[in-house]
Amino acid sequence: MKFNLNNIVRESVRKLQPYSSARDEYVSDGSEMIFLDANENPFDNGVNRYPDPYQRSLKSLLAEQKGVSESQILLGNGSDEVLDLIYRAFCEPNLDNIITLPPTYGMYNVLAGINSVENKEVLLTTDFQPNVNEILKVTDSNSKLLFICSPNNPTGNSFKKERIEKLLESFNGLVVIDEAYIDFSKDESWLSQLKTYPNLIVTQTLSKAYGLAGIRLGICYASEEIIAVLNKIKPPYNVNQLTQQRALQRVLNQDLVDQEVQQILDERDGLIKALDNLDFVKELYPTDANFVLAKVDDANKRYQQLLEKQVVVRNRSTQPLCENTLRFTVGTPLENKKLIAILKEMK
Ligand SMILES: *Cc1c(COP(=O)(O)O)cnc(C)c1O
Protein backbone atom coordinates (compact mmCIF):
# COMPACT_ATOMS: atom_id res chain seq x y z
CA MET A 1 0.00 0.00 0.00
CA LYS A 2 1.28 3.45 -0.85
CA PHE A 3 1.61 6.02 1.93
CA ASN A 4 -1.01 8.76 1.76
CA LEU A 5 -0.85 11.49 4.39
CA ASN A 6 -4.52 12.35 3.94
CA ASN A 7 -5.49 8.92 5.25
CA ILE A 8 -3.49 9.55 8.40
CA VAL A 9 -4.57 13.07 9.43
CA ARG A 10 -7.53 13.22 11.84
CA GLU A 11 -10.67 14.46 10.17
CA SER A 12 -11.13 17.30 12.69
CA VAL A 13 -7.59 18.50 11.99
CA ARG A 14 -8.09 18.30 8.24
CA LYS A 15 -11.18 20.48 8.53
CA LEU A 16 -9.68 22.89 11.06
CA GLN A 17 -9.41 26.59 10.34
CA PRO A 18 -6.33 27.56 12.37
CA TYR A 19 -6.19 30.59 14.67
CA SER A 20 -4.71 33.57 12.91
CA SER A 21 -2.59 35.72 15.19
CA ALA A 22 -1.67 39.38 14.72
CA ARG A 23 1.84 38.27 13.81
CA ASP A 24 0.41 35.95 11.14
CA GLU A 25 -1.52 38.68 9.40
CA TYR A 26 1.27 41.21 9.23
CA VAL A 27 4.82 39.95 8.79
CA SER A 28 7.45 42.59 9.44
CA ASP A 29 9.97 43.20 6.66
CA GLY A 30 12.35 44.84 9.10
CA SER A 31 11.35 48.44 8.40
CA GLU A 32 10.39 50.78 11.24
CA MET A 33 6.67 50.23 11.73
CA ILE A 34 4.31 51.33 14.46
CA PHE A 35 2.77 48.12 15.85
CA LEU A 36 -0.72 48.74 17.19
CA ASP A 37 -2.17 45.37 16.20
CA ALA A 38 -1.58 42.98 19.11
CA ASN A 39 -2.55 44.84 22.29
CA GLU A 40 0.99 44.67 23.58
CA ASN A 41 2.52 47.18 26.01
CA PRO A 42 4.44 49.54 23.67
CA PHE A 43 7.35 50.31 26.05
CA ASP A 44 10.42 48.37 24.99
CA ASN A 45 11.93 46.02 27.59
CA GLY A 46 13.28 43.43 25.15
CA VAL A 47 10.33 41.07 25.42
CA ASN A 48 7.24 43.31 25.31
CA ARG A 49 6.38 42.06 21.79
CA TYR A 50 4.97 38.64 20.92
CA PRO A 51 7.64 36.32 19.52
CA ASP A 52 7.76 35.26 15.88
CA PRO A 53 5.19 32.41 15.75
CA TYR A 54 7.22 30.64 13.06
CA GLN A 55 10.70 31.29 14.54
CA ARG A 56 12.06 32.25 11.12
CA SER A 57 15.62 33.23 12.16
CA LEU A 58 16.21 30.02 14.09
CA LYS A 59 14.64 27.85 11.40
CA SER A 60 16.66 29.43 8.65
CA LEU A 61 19.88 28.68 10.54
CA LEU A 62 18.84 25.08 11.30
CA ALA A 63 17.72 24.57 7.69
CA GLU A 64 21.10 25.68 6.41
CA GLN A 65 23.03 23.53 8.90
CA LYS A 66 20.96 20.41 8.34
CA GLY A 67 20.41 20.70 4.60
CA VAL A 68 16.61 20.83 4.70
CA SER A 69 14.16 23.60 3.83
CA GLU A 70 12.57 25.83 6.48
CA SER A 71 9.18 24.42 5.54
CA GLN A 72 10.40 21.01 6.71
CA ILE A 73 10.93 22.21 10.30
CA LEU A 74 8.57 22.63 13.24
CA LEU A 75 9.87 23.89 16.58
CA GLY A 76 8.24 23.22 19.92
CA ASN A 77 8.47 23.80 23.66
CA GLY A 78 10.80 20.79 24.03
CA SER A 79 10.48 17.52 22.10
CA ASP A 80 7.69 16.70 24.50
CA GLU A 81 5.45 19.33 22.90
CA VAL A 82 6.49 18.23 19.42
CA LEU A 83 5.58 14.61 20.23
CA ASP A 84 2.24 15.65 21.73
CA LEU A 85 1.39 17.62 18.57
CA ILE A 86 2.13 14.53 16.49
CA TYR A 87 -0.34 12.48 18.55
CA ARG A 88 -3.00 15.16 18.33
CA ALA A 89 -2.65 15.59 14.58
CA PHE A 90 -2.75 11.92 13.63
CA CYS A 91 -4.34 9.77 16.36
CA GLU A 92 -8.12 9.62 16.85
CA PRO A 93 -8.71 9.11 20.61
CA ASN A 94 -10.18 5.72 21.59
CA LEU A 95 -9.78 4.44 18.04
CA ASP A 96 -6.22 4.65 16.74
CA ASN A 97 -3.12 3.06 18.21
CA ILE A 98 0.62 3.64 18.28
CA ILE A 99 3.53 1.23 18.59
CA THR A 100 6.45 1.64 20.98
CA LEU A 101 9.45 -0.57 21.64
CA PRO A 102 10.24 -0.90 25.37
CA PRO A 103 12.55 -0.46 27.13
CA THR A 104 12.42 3.08 25.76
CA TYR A 105 11.64 6.72 26.55
CA GLY A 106 8.70 6.92 28.95
CA MET A 107 6.99 9.94 27.40
CA TYR A 108 5.62 8.01 24.40
CA ASN A 109 3.46 5.93 26.72
CA VAL A 110 2.45 8.90 28.90
CA LEU A 111 1.41 10.88 25.82
CA ALA A 112 -0.57 7.88 24.57
CA GLY A 113 -2.44 7.87 27.88
CA ILE A 114 -3.06 11.64 27.82
CA ASN A 115 -4.43 11.42 24.30
CA SER A 116 -6.49 8.24 24.90
CA VAL A 117 -4.57 6.31 22.29
CA GLU A 118 -3.75 2.64 22.72
CA ASN A 119 -0.02 1.86 22.98
CA LYS A 120 0.92 -1.51 21.49
CA GLU A 121 4.23 -2.43 23.06
CA VAL A 122 6.66 -4.71 21.24
CA LEU A 123 9.71 -5.49 23.35
CA LEU A 124 13.15 -5.02 21.89
CA THR A 125 15.12 -8.22 21.37
CA THR A 126 17.58 -9.20 24.13
CA ASP A 127 20.34 -7.28 22.31
CA PHE A 128 18.06 -4.20 22.36
CA GLN A 129 17.16 -4.16 18.66
CA PRO A 130 13.66 -3.71 17.14
CA ASN A 131 11.82 -6.98 16.57
CA VAL A 132 10.68 -6.16 13.04
CA ASN A 133 8.51 -9.24 12.48
CA GLU A 134 6.64 -8.77 15.75
CA ILE A 135 6.11 -5.06 15.06
CA LEU A 136 4.60 -5.76 11.65
CA LYS A 137 2.50 -8.54 13.16
CA VAL A 138 0.79 -6.28 15.73
CA THR A 139 0.33 -3.43 13.23
CA ASP A 140 -3.24 -2.89 12.02
CA SER A 141 -5.06 -0.30 9.91
CA ASN A 142 -5.38 1.98 12.96
CA SER A 143 -1.67 1.96 13.77
CA LYS A 144 -0.76 5.59 13.09
CA LEU A 145 2.62 6.07 14.72
CA LEU A 146 5.68 3.93 15.34
CA PHE A 147 8.22 5.39 17.79
CA ILE A 148 11.85 4.51 17.23
CA CYS A 149 14.33 6.00 19.68
CA SER A 150 17.85 5.72 18.28
CA PRO A 151 20.20 5.99 20.11
CA ASN A 152 17.72 4.49 22.53
CA ASN A 153 17.06 5.75 26.04
CA PRO A 154 17.71 4.00 28.47
CA THR A 155 19.74 1.31 26.71
CA GLY A 156 22.10 3.72 24.91
CA ASN A 157 22.56 1.75 21.69
CA SER A 158 21.62 2.72 18.14
CA PHE A 159 19.30 0.52 16.13
CA LYS A 160 20.54 -1.28 13.04
CA LYS A 161 20.03 0.67 9.84
CA GLU A 162 18.54 -2.28 7.92
CA ARG A 163 15.87 -2.79 10.58
CA ILE A 164 14.80 0.84 10.55
CA GLU A 165 14.77 0.80 6.74
CA LYS A 166 12.54 -2.26 6.73
CA LEU A 167 10.13 -0.55 9.12
CA LEU A 168 10.08 2.67 7.08
CA GLU A 169 9.25 0.62 4.00
CA SER A 170 6.62 -1.63 5.59
CA PHE A 171 4.81 0.50 8.18
CA ASN A 172 1.84 2.39 6.71
CA GLY A 173 1.65 5.03 9.41
CA LEU A 174 4.28 7.57 10.38
CA VAL A 175 7.64 6.41 11.68
CA VAL A 176 8.93 8.85 14.30
CA ILE A 177 12.68 8.52 14.83
CA ASP A 178 13.64 10.25 18.08
CA GLU A 179 17.22 11.43 17.71
CA ALA A 180 17.61 13.18 21.07
CA TYR A 181 21.12 11.66 21.37
CA ILE A 182 22.20 11.74 17.71
CA ASP A 183 25.00 14.27 18.33
CA PHE A 184 26.80 11.70 20.49
CA SER A 185 26.39 8.91 17.96
CA LYS A 186 28.73 7.48 15.37
CA ASP A 187 25.73 6.74 13.16
CA GLU A 188 24.39 9.22 10.66
CA SER A 189 21.09 11.03 11.28
CA TRP A 190 18.02 9.87 9.35
CA LEU A 191 17.49 13.47 8.25
CA SER A 192 19.15 12.72 4.93
CA GLN A 193 16.39 10.17 4.22
CA LEU A 194 13.42 12.56 4.46
CA LYS A 195 13.19 12.70 0.68
CA THR A 196 13.18 8.91 0.38
CA TYR A 197 10.48 8.21 2.97
CA PRO A 198 7.30 10.35 2.97
CA ASN A 199 6.25 8.71 6.27
CA LEU A 200 9.41 9.68 8.17
CA ILE A 201 9.50 12.18 11.05
CA VAL A 202 12.81 12.92 12.77
CA THR A 203 12.82 14.68 16.15
CA GLN A 204 15.83 16.28 17.79
CA THR A 205 16.30 18.55 20.79
CA LEU A 206 18.62 21.18 22.22
CA SER A 207 18.26 19.54 25.67
CA LYS A 208 21.15 17.08 25.51
CA ALA A 209 24.28 17.73 23.40
CA TYR A 210 23.46 21.43 22.98
CA GLY A 211 23.27 21.93 26.75
CA LEU A 212 19.99 23.88 26.74
CA ALA A 213 17.53 21.68 28.63
CA GLY A 214 16.37 24.76 30.55
CA ILE A 215 15.11 26.73 27.55
CA ARG A 216 12.88 23.91 26.15
CA LEU A 217 13.48 23.69 22.41
CA GLY A 218 12.47 20.60 20.47
CA ILE A 219 12.80 20.20 16.73
CA CYS A 220 10.73 18.19 14.27
CA TYR A 221 11.91 17.53 10.73
CA ALA A 222 9.56 15.97 8.17
CA SER A 223 8.04 16.50 4.72
CA GLU A 224 6.57 19.91 4.00
CA GLU A 225 3.11 18.31 4.05
CA ILE A 226 3.52 16.81 7.51
CA ILE A 227 4.94 20.06 8.89
CA ALA A 228 2.00 22.01 7.43
CA VAL A 229 -0.41 19.79 9.37
CA LEU A 230 1.50 20.28 12.63
CA ASN A 231 1.69 24.04 12.07
CA LYS A 232 -2.09 24.13 11.82
CA ILE A 233 -2.57 22.84 15.36
CA LYS A 234 0.40 24.24 17.27
CA PRO A 235 -0.23 27.02 19.81
CA PRO A 236 0.62 30.27 17.98
CA TYR A 237 3.44 31.42 20.28
CA ASN A 238 4.70 28.06 21.52
CA VAL A 239 8.41 29.00 21.46
CA ASN A 240 9.08 32.10 23.53
CA GLN A 241 11.35 35.01 22.61
CA LEU A 242 14.08 34.22 25.17
CA THR A 243 14.26 30.62 23.99
CA GLN A 244 14.54 31.68 20.36
CA GLN A 245 17.40 34.06 21.23
CA ARG A 246 19.38 31.61 23.34
CA ALA A 247 18.90 28.80 20.84
CA LEU A 248 20.11 31.01 17.99
CA GLN A 249 23.26 32.02 19.91
CA ARG A 250 24.08 28.44 20.75
CA VAL A 251 23.45 26.96 17.31
CA LEU A 252 25.68 29.69 15.88
CA ASN A 253 28.43 28.57 18.26
CA GLN A 254 28.63 25.05 16.82
CA ASP A 255 32.37 24.77 17.55
CA LEU A 256 31.80 25.00 21.28
CA VAL A 257 28.99 22.42 21.13
CA ASP A 258 31.25 20.03 19.18
CA GLN A 259 34.05 20.56 21.67
CA GLU A 260 31.79 19.78 24.64
CA VAL A 261 30.40 16.69 22.90
CA GLN A 262 33.93 15.42 22.27
CA GLN A 263 34.84 15.98 25.92
CA ILE A 264 31.72 14.11 27.05
CA LEU A 265 32.62 11.20 24.76
CA ASP A 266 36.19 11.09 26.12
CA GLU A 267 34.85 11.15 29.66
CA ARG A 268 32.39 8.39 28.77
CA ASP A 269 35.29 6.14 27.75
CA GLY A 270 36.93 6.69 31.14
CA LEU A 271 33.69 5.97 32.97
CA ILE A 272 33.17 2.74 31.02
CA LYS A 273 36.69 1.55 31.88
CA ALA A 274 36.14 2.29 35.56
CA LEU A 275 32.73 0.60 35.66
CA ASP A 276 34.16 -2.42 33.87
CA ASN A 277 36.65 -2.96 36.70
CA LEU A 278 34.04 -3.14 39.45
CA ASP A 279 33.03 -6.54 40.83
CA PHE A 280 29.42 -5.54 41.38
CA VAL A 281 29.00 -4.44 37.75
CA LYS A 282 27.81 -7.52 35.89
CA GLU A 283 27.34 -6.12 32.41
CA LEU A 284 27.90 -2.88 30.51
CA TYR A 285 25.76 -2.25 27.47
CA PRO A 286 27.18 -0.63 24.32
CA THR A 287 26.36 3.07 24.21
CA ASP A 288 26.10 5.65 21.48
CA ALA A 289 24.80 8.34 23.84
CA ASN A 290 25.97 10.50 26.78
CA PHE A 291 25.07 7.84 29.33
CA VAL A 292 25.91 4.25 30.15
CA LEU A 293 23.51 1.51 31.23
CA ALA A 294 25.06 -0.98 33.62
CA LYS A 295 23.68 -4.21 35.08
CA VAL A 296 24.73 -4.53 38.70
CA ASP A 297 24.33 -7.16 41.43
CA ASP A 298 21.63 -5.24 43.32
CA ALA A 299 20.42 -1.99 41.74
CA ASN A 300 18.36 -0.78 44.71
CA LYS A 301 21.29 -1.25 47.10
CA ARG A 302 23.81 0.44 44.79
CA TYR A 303 21.39 3.29 44.05
CA GLN A 304 20.97 3.96 47.78
CA GLN A 305 24.71 3.77 48.44
CA LEU A 306 25.33 6.37 45.73
CA LEU A 307 22.55 8.59 47.06
CA GLU A 308 24.16 8.55 50.51
CA LYS A 309 27.27 9.94 48.82
CA GLN A 310 25.22 12.70 47.13
CA VAL A 311 25.28 11.07 43.68
CA VAL A 312 21.97 10.67 41.86
CA VAL A 313 21.79 8.12 39.06
CA ARG A 314 18.72 6.56 37.42
CA ASN A 315 17.54 3.15 38.52
CA ARG A 316 15.97 1.57 35.42
CA SER A 317 15.17 -1.79 37.04
CA THR A 318 11.42 -1.50 36.57
CA GLN A 319 11.84 -1.40 32.78
CA PRO A 320 11.48 -4.67 30.88
CA LEU A 321 14.84 -6.33 30.04
CA CYS A 322 16.50 -3.89 32.46
CA GLU A 323 16.38 -5.76 35.76
CA ASN A 324 19.06 -4.48 38.16
CA THR A 325 20.28 -1.74 35.85
CA LEU A 326 21.49 1.75 36.64
CA ARG A 327 21.84 4.51 34.07
CA PHE A 328 24.82 6.82 34.54
CA THR A 329 24.83 10.18 32.74
CA VAL A 330 28.34 11.40 31.91
CA GLY A 331 29.15 14.45 34.05
CA THR A 332 31.99 16.95 34.10
CA PRO A 333 35.54 15.55 34.47
CA LEU A 334 35.46 16.44 38.19
CA GLU A 335 32.04 14.87 38.74
CA ASN A 336 33.10 11.68 36.96
CA LYS A 337 36.27 11.51 39.02
CA LYS A 338 34.27 11.80 42.24
CA LEU A 339 31.76 9.21 41.02
CA ILE A 340 34.50 6.73 40.17
CA ALA A 341 36.21 7.22 43.54
CA ILE A 342 32.89 6.60 45.32
CA LEU A 343 32.14 3.50 43.21
CA LYS A 344 35.55 2.03 44.03
CA GLU A 345 34.90 2.44 47.76
CA MET A 346 31.52 0.70 47.64
CA LYS A 347 31.32 -2.67 49.41
C1 LIG B 1 15.79 13.73 26.86
C2 LIG B 1 15.01 13.14 25.75
C3 LIG B 1 14.22 13.95 24.93
C4 LIG B 1 14.22 15.44 25.14
O1 LIG B 1 13.03 15.96 25.43
P1 LIG B 1 12.92 17.55 25.52
O2 LIG B 1 11.47 17.72 25.79
O3 LIG B 1 13.33 18.11 24.18
O4 LIG B 1 13.82 18.04 26.61
C5 LIG B 1 13.53 13.39 23.89
N1 LIG B 1 13.59 12.06 23.66
C6 LIG B 1 14.36 11.27 24.41
C7 LIG B 1 14.44 9.83 24.08
C8 LIG B 1 15.07 11.79 25.48
O5 LIG B 1 15.81 10.96 26.24
From TrEMBL:
EC number in record: 2.6.1.9
Residue ranges of every copy of the Aminotransferase class I/classII large domain listed in the record: 45-341
Modified residues (N6-(pyridoxal phosphate)lysine): 208
A Pfam cross-reference name: Aminotran_1_2
Catalytic activity, reaction form: L-histidinol phosphate + 2-oxoglutarate = 3-(imidazol-4-yl)-2-oxopropyl phosphate + L-glutamate
InterPro entries: Aminotrans_II_pyridoxalP_BS, Aminotransferase_I/II_large, HisP_aminotrans, PyrdxlP-dep_Trfase, PyrdxlP-dep_Trfase_major, PyrdxlP-dep_Trfase_small
Cofactor(s) the record lists: pyridoxal 5'-phosphate
Coiled coil regions in record: none
Key words of the record: Amino-acid biosynthesis, Aminotransferase, Histidine biosynthesis, Pyridoxal phosphate, Transferase
SUPFAM superfamilies linked to this entry: PLP-dependent transferases (SSF53383)
NCBIfam families referenced in this protein's UniProt entry, alphabetically: hisC
Protein name: Histidinol-phosphate aminotransferase
Organism: Flagellimonas halotolerans
